[in-house]
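Just wondering, can you check both lines?
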Amino acid sequence: MVYNARVVSHRAKVTMAMASEPELAMSLARITEPADRSSDPPTAAELRALWLPFVLFVVVSVADTISSVIMLRNGMMEEANPMMRWVWEAGGALAFCCVKALLVAVPLALFNALKVRRYWFIRRVVWVTILGYVVIYGFFFYIGNF
C-alpha cells in the first residue's frame, strides 16, 4: 500500500500531540489505517459466495477427466503424468476416474473445512487452484490438438 508522506507525517504529529488522549489517538488510528479484513470472521454472504469457485473447480476437473478418458480410449493421447499413466494401465477407466475424483474431493473437503477459520486464504487458494488447473489443462489440450 502506498501512503502519502505528507499525510503520514501529519498523522504522526497529530498522534503525538494527542498522546495524553489515548482514546482519541486510537480512533484516529482506526480511521487512517487501511482496513485489514483478514482477522474478521467471514459473513454468511461471503461464505455462500464460495460456492462458485468450488463448483468451477469440480467442473474443470470433470471436463479434464472426461476429455482424458475419451482421448486415452481412442489413442489420441498418452497420459503425461506417470502416476496417472500407471493407474490407467493397471486399472482402466474406472480406476482413473476414481483417482481423479479423489484428487478433487480431498482438496474440496480441506477447503470446506477451513473456509470459516481461514476464509481469506482459502478464497485466494481456490481461485489460484482453478486458474492453475485451467492454464495447465488448456496448455496441454492446445499442444495435443494443434
About this structure: Residues 5-34 form one domain. The chain has two domains: 5-34, 44-145. The radius of gyration is 25 Å. The first helix runs from residue 5 to 17.
